[in-house]
Design goal:
single chain; alpha/beta; 4 domains; six-stranded mixed beta sheet; 50 helices; 28 strands; 11% strand; ABC multidrug transporter
Length: 1379
């Protein structure tokens, strides 16, 4: 029944066709492909070769009326996801031939997906949520974006709607649990999936396309979700289109219609209850105990479909034959007549009043809140995220405060004289830069949440611009607190101008600059399509802002091709205002007169001049305004003129950022395609896409008859070949456990996950582990496999009475629920990697690699064996990834047992059957297998020998044999009070449902009787027999020790290092985005740096400019570190999630390979940086006989190279010991700034307080800068420019020339007299050569090459620290657990 305010909306599609383009985008990118991209582009323009069009969907017809549910069936790759995406308007990566072929009950395709966004949504398989929020907060937020309830049960406040929806999806207990991610512990995989379903459910879209959305859910939960959708569809007269793999009969019966896809062809569309009869009439038989959905899907697999006797020559075989018969049938004719009537009743583009009313009512699903209200709820959510994950913010606040105190102590209590002028300039410059560039990390934060914001935008929850505004508002409190915590210590410790007006002017300008630079970085991030694209411009802007501030290079010295940037740089305007605020209307007593000394004290001020710029001969005071005017060209009238300029920039950048966030989406995948290395170009391009041919074996009977070793639903093996399964080593050890418990700590105290479990797995048996979602199935596997990293496990776990030892992890196979693989590797390479590292060292390399081909054949993976794993959407699909996960463990040839955590999750029924059949054959060959499984069909369930059934809370409901047709299992539960199992019912679904229903009713009862089946199991004779058998297995345990005495690895450490390092190099080569981003960032910074100081004159200002050019080289560290740290964290996640647990290789090998590969690529970057900076600045011309050009170049190159090595090793050392990459980046940047402050460039050694001198000696950048300064500028003569010369107008009596008067002083002060023979207006330059000047500042100028040695020491220290920090923070320690 239609609810008031909701517009029923069906849809039709007629002759729907979709196509994609086969191009070079299908090939895996590498460094070489990026280099050759431009030449290939021009060659393509000159050639006549065109891109090949690939048909995806061909001539689809369908009609789904309001209140109906359509089930889309087909094998992976048949086009199910494409059809759902097409109907939902998510057509990125492919094209619809004619959008007019789709009619949303009078609304055109363009109107639905542009004007009525949110009325039709697509729910993908991937689950993305804000990890900091709890489930309740996530659903409450979704509900708050809707002004009307989304179901009959969802009424009231958003909080009530969220809680009600959580209850509908059985998420009550997880309501206050954080969603979580790889870094934040939170919901389980099944709970996260249901959270995604609940969120889409709340959206209230009238047309919802659900793509395999029940993946990872147990059968009972999946059925409940579909029943919920059924009620909602009938209540709201909405439309649901859903694809399901392994749909049970109970699920299938909930759908009104079904469509069957076969390699992009539609071979049926119609009522679900007539589909079986249609194909029966075509000549196909439905095997017994096969669900209708499985039967339909099996028709698209020649090895699965069974033809009826007498129809062998008439039944269709190829996809085209199926499609042709469908097009010629009366069913399609009837369907087309219905579509024609529907389109006539609801023509698209009609301007009828009722159509306008329908659009208005549908628009209630489109941004139901005003933009202002959207911003308010996004602000509320933003503060919740900060509250739930305040750690990074607190760490940043503490780090910035520490840095401010350090800076304040370095410039402590600046004096009132002219000797403090340069230090005040440096202090204001450094404080401004540190504050202005602090928002740079916001780019990474934006990208982390961008997929979630775009998903919510597709649901029409809110506009991206609303989240953009909310994000800025939520950041304001932190920016305010951080601004005061940073600037108060700096301002008052250093004795800057001590007036309230001056301080608040200083603070206000710096705070406005922080906001303006925040808008700048956000604008760049929003304009970019990927995070990698945003890094180079951000880094380049930072360097340009530093150079064009006005302090490093005064405007008169700026090169014309870069000087323009200062007019659009917020930092330059702020620095001018800060300087004016500090200096105007102030006088500074001269602290250094020229000449000075005991001999010159007898002369009056008229014969001396102040050494400060802006001084007037004969005066002992320097006016602050004169100093600013002469040195920088600043005018005091610009103090407040700059404020509206800054605000205008902030508003402009903010507007661009918000517009880009709203209209420029992130780069998305190009559709589900396989990526191959280019060497496979011809094979892929020429591959036929016509599918099967009529000459192929087309029926299961034909294939089964071909060889006695091949049976229905199994992989093919030639009769002359040895069965690959027989190559597995037969086992005799029994794996058993008893009294097993597992507890974890939560906010509410200890929580028991597993409670007193008993059982065993014997060789030659296949044991199923089942239970409702949240029963602790995965936790049990982790405890048994010795993989738990948190919590305390107690109990007894043995192998034939022997303890698990260091080799246990390698000698078992563990197929994880998550498909974790390296995206850049190919399928074959991933298997070879596992085989080489995990198979016994007694086998040759050829034997190991040969076995990879065997496994590829067993799992039918040859077609994509050379395809790159990629990422979802561009690489292997879900089914192919799951096969790869299983194959990785199989090639290891586990000789103890095989654990599998939901190996059939996300697979179609035929693939699930082939996997279970393979497991059955492995068990029959002597393998011991324990497997968790969701939604098993009756046929799948019969492949298992035994069942371990868990209840919610980790208690045991049953352990024992299943029996033929599950008779043993059914008999046990019926004897203990369960309802009778209906004839033909799926025993697996029945046992989960009856135990769950009883538990649910007990929770609601008041008699206090809980867990009846748990209690009956504890009191049963079956449990007593189990315990007695376990006692027999534990005979002589005390005399046993362990299985082996090895270190647990199959190959030596050297072999591990070679194999892992080779893969790491390959990974970098095939990830050109990372390397080109690294190179672009480095070259962008150094080219801007080098070109800004091109051929700088060797006067005092030019010398100062080159010193700061060397300072700018160090600015590579923050940008490069932000790339290295997340990459190491991602590699660490893969290693610790799978490869460390299965003992493929040691943690030391992981660290060593990452360090080695990064050092090599940093060497290449160092060469490019050296060439792009050293030669443009002209320092290479400064060679002389005592320090040749070649030696100078070698010294500078070595130091720049070592600086890059130091950068990577320090970043990796910090990343190795810190869990969160964001926090590690902040720590590394803090260490860098501390090293930079004490390096001797910003503050010269002699100007440092005595307390900090040790930091100057300890800073690695001290030796870097010292060495580069000596290599580039050592032994160089300085010539003052006209404005730098100090003038003395009158000579005292007794001196005839300027040389006579100033010569002795010049020789002692290392200066020179410009006009020694003049008799008046003497000109004096305070610096004659660089060595004497640097030596006077406290720098070592005697042995430049010693700096190389110090840098080498720091690099070695960083490498050792990387190993040490990883060992201390990441290597598991031995703890009490199962015996």
């Amino acid at each position: 029944m239609e609810n008031e305010g909701d517009a029923p909306c069906g849809l039709s599609f007629l002759d729907l066709q979709c196509h994609g383009v086969l191009s070079s985008a299908r090939y895996q990118p590498t460094i070489a492909s990026y280099i050759l991209a431009a030449p290939r582009f021009f060659l393509h323009l000159l050639s006549n070769r065109t891109h090949r069009t690939v048909r995806i969907l061909q001539d689809f017809d369908g009609l789904v009326m309001p209140g109906e549910m359509l089930l889309v069936l087909g094998r992976p790759g048949s086009g199910c996801s494409t059809l759902l995406k097409t109907l939902a308007g998510d057509t990125h990566g492919f094209r619809i031939n004619d959008e007019r072929s789709i009619n949303y009950q009078g609304i055109s395709f363009r109107q639905m997906h542009h004007e009525l966004k949110g009325g039709c949504v697509y729910l993908a398989e991937l689950d993305v949520h804000f990890p900091e929020l709890t489930l309740g907060e996530t659903l409450t937020f979704a509900a708050s974006t809707r002004t009307t309830g989304s179901s009959e049960a969802a009424t009231g406040t958003p909080s009530n709607v969220g809680r009600t929806t959580a209850a509908l999806f059985n998420l009550d207990e997880a309501f206050n649990t954080k969603v979580g991610d790889a870094m934040i512990r939170g919901l389980s995989g099944g709970e996260k999936k249901r959270a995604s379903l609940a969120e889409a459910f709340i959206s209230g879209a009238q047309i919802q396309c659900w793509d395999n959305s029940t993946r990872g859910l147990d059968s009972s939960t999946a059925i409940r979700c579909i029943e919920l959708l059924r009620r909602r569809t009938e209540s709201l007269q909405s439309t649901v289109i859903m694809s399901i793999y392994q749909a049970s009969e109970a699920m299938y019966e909930k759908f009104d219609k079904v469509t069957l896809l076969y390699e992009g062809r539609q071979i049926y569309f119609g009522p679900a209850d007539l589909a079986e009869d249609y194909f029966y009439r075509l000549g196909f038989a439905r095997p017994s105990r096969t669900t209708t959905a499985d039967f339909l899907t099996s028709l698209t697999n020649p090895a699965e479909r069974v033809v009826r006797e007498g129809y062998e020559d008439r039944a269709p075989r190829s996809p085209d034959e199926f499609a042709r018969i469908w097009k010629q049938g009366v069913e399609l004719t009837t369907l087309r007549d219905e579509i024609t009537n529907f389109n006539s009743a609801y023509p698209t583009g009609a301007q009828a009043v009722h159509m306008d009313d329908r659009k208005a009512r549908l628009k209630k699903c489109t941004y139901t809140l005003s933009l202002y209200s959207q911003i308010l709820i996004c602000i509320k959510r933003g503060f919740l995220r900060l509250q739930n994950n305040y750690g990074p913010g607190i760490a940043a606040l503490i780090g910035n405060t520490i840095l401010a105190i350090v800076i304040g102590s370095i410039f402590y209590n600046l004096g009132p004289g002219t000797d403090s002028l340069d230090r005040r300039d440096i202090l204001l410059f450094f404080a401004l830069l540190t504050a202005a560039f602090s928002p740079a990390f916001e780019v990474a934060t934006m990208w982390a949440q961008r997929p979630i914001v775009e998903k919510h935008n597709s649901y029409a929850f809110y506009h991206p611009v609303a989240e953009g505004v909310a994000s800025m508002v939520c950041d304001l409190p932190f920016k305010l607190v951080n601004s005061f915590m940073f600037h108060i210590p700096i301002y008052f410790m250093t004795n800057l101008r001590r007036t309230a007006n001056a301080f608040f002017t200083y603070w206000f300008f710096t705070f406005v600059t922080v906001l303006t630079m925040s808008m700048t970085f956000r604008m760049i991030g929003s304009l970019s399509r990927t995070l990698g694209q945003s890094m180079p411009p951000c880094s380049t802007i930072v360097v340009l802002a530093i150079i064009c501030t006005g302090f490093v290079i005064p405007p008169s010295y700026m090169v014309p091709w870069l000087g323009w940037f200062r007019w659009i740089s917020p930092v330059s305007y702020t620095y001018e205002s800060l300087m004016i605020n500090e200096y105007h209307d102030r006088t500074f007593p001269c602290t250094t007169l020229v000449p000075s000394g005991p001999y010159y004290d007898q002369f009056g001020i008229q014969n001396n001049t102040c050494s400060s710029i802006g001084s007037v001969p004969g005066q002992s005071l320097v006016q602050g305004s004169d100093y600013l005017s002469v040195k920088y060209g600043y005018r005091t009238s610009h103090l407040w003129r700059n404020l509206p300029i800054l605000i205008a920039m902030m508003i402009a950048f903010c507007a661009v950022h918000l517009c880009a966030a709203e209209f420029i989406p992130a780069k998305r995948s190009r559709g589900e395609i396989l990526l191959f290395p280019r060497r496979h170009y011809k094979r892929i391009y020429n591959k036929s896409d016509t599918g099967e041919t009529t000459s192929s074996k087309s029926f299961a009977q034909d294939i089964s008859a071909e060889s006695p070793v091949v049976v229905q639903r199994e992989y093919r093996v030639m009769a002359s070949e040895k069965n690959p399964v027989e190559t597995f080593q037969r086992q005799s050890a029994v794996f058993h456990w008893s009294n097993l418990n597992y507890d974890i700590k939560t906010q509410d105290g200890n929580r028991r996950i597993l409670n007193d479990l008993h059982g065993w797995v014997k060789p030659g048996t296949l044991t199923a582990l089942m239970g409702v979602t949240g029963a602790g199935k995965t936790s049990l596997l982790d405890v048994l496999a010795d993989r738990v990293a948190t919590g305390v496990a107690t109990g007894d776990v043995y192998i034939d009475g022997e303890l698990r030892d260091a080799t246990f992890g390698r000698r078992i196979g563990y197929v994880q629920q998550e498909d974790i693989h390296l995206p850049t590797t190919t399928v074959r390479e991933a298997l070879e990697f596992s085989a080489l590292l995990r198979q016994s060292n007694g086998k040759t390399k050829a034997e190991k690699l040969s076995y990879v081909d065997t496994v590829l054949d067993m799992l039918e993976m040859e077609a994509y064996a050379d395809a790159a794993v990629g990422v979802p959407g561009e690489g292997l699909n879900v089914e192919q990834r799951k096969r790869l996960t299983i194959a990785v463990e199989m090639v290891a040839r586990p000789d103890l047992l095989l654990f599998l955590d939901e190996p059939t999750s996300g697979l179609d029924s035929q693939t699930a059957w082939s996997i279970c059949t393979l497991l059955r054959k492995l068990a029959d060959s002597g393998q011991a297998i324990l497997c968790t499984i969701h939604q098993p069909s009756s046929q799948l369930f019969q492949t298992f020998d035994s069942l371990l059934l868990l209840n919610k809370g980790g208690t045991q409901l049953y352990f024992g044999p299943i029996g033929p047709n599950a008779c043993t299992l059914i008999d046990y539960f019926e004897r203990n009070g369960a309802t009778k199992c209906p004839v033909g019912a799926n025993p697996a679904e029945w046992v989960v449902e009856v135990t769950r229903s009883r538990a649910d009713s007990e929770e609601q009862s008041t008699d206090g009787e809980n867990h009846v089946f748990v209690e009956k199991w504890n009191a049963s004779k079956e449990k007593q027999e189990t315990i007695e058998h376990l006692e027999g297995l534990k005979v002589n345990v005390q005399e046993k020790t362990s299985l082996h005495g090895k270190d647990g690895y199959a190959v030596s450490g050297y072999e591990q290092l070679v194999i892992v390092t080779e893969r790491a190099f390959q990974q970098y080569w095939r990830d050109p985005g990372y390397l080109y981003s690294k190179i672009a960032v480095s070259l962008g910074i150094t080219l801007v740096n080098g070109l800004s100081f091109t051929n700088s004159p060797l006067d005092v200002q030019g010398f100062t400019d080159l010193l700061f050019s060397i300072f700018l080289i160090t600015q590579l560290f923050p940008s490069v570190g932000q790339q290295i740290i997340p990459r190491l964290a991602a590699g660490r996640a893969l290693f610790e999630a799978r490869e460390r647990r299965n003992r493929s290789y040691s943690w030391a090998v992981f660290v060593a390979s990452n360090v080695a590969v990064e050092l090599c690529w940093q060497t290449l970057v160092g060469v490019l940086v050296y060439v792009s900076w050293y030669y443009p600045t002209g320092m290479w011309r400064n060679g002389d006989a005592s320090f040749t050009t070649a030696e100078r170049g070698g010294l500078v190159f070595t130091l720049i190279w070592f600086f890059h090595l130091w950068t990577s090793t320090l970043s990796q050392a910090v990343a190795a010991g810190v869990e969160h990459p964001e926090t590690a980046v902040q720590y590394s940047v803090l260490l860098f700034w501390l090293s930079l402050v004490f390096s001797g460039i910003l503050v010269f050694p002699k100007a440092l307080p005595g307390f900090w001198v040790f930091m100057y000696r300890a800073s690695p950048l001290t030796y870097l800068s010292n060495g580069i300064i000596l290599g580039g500028l050592g032994n160089t003569r300085i010539t003052c420019s006209s404005k730098e010369l100090l003038r003395i107008d009158v000579l005292p009596p007794g001196f005839d020339t300027c040389g006579d008067y100033l010569g002795p002083y010049a020789r002692s002060a290392n200066g020179y007299v410009e006009n020694p023979s003049a008799t008046g207006s003497c000109l004096y330059c305070p610096i004659a050569d660089t060595n004497s000047f640097l030596g006077g500042l406290g720098m070592n100028t005697r042995d430049p090459w010693r700096n190389v040695g110090f840098m080498m020491v720091y690099i070695v220290f960083n490498v050792l620290a990387t190993f040490g920090f990883y060992w201390m923070a990441r290597v598991p320690r031995k703890s009490k657990g199962p015996s």
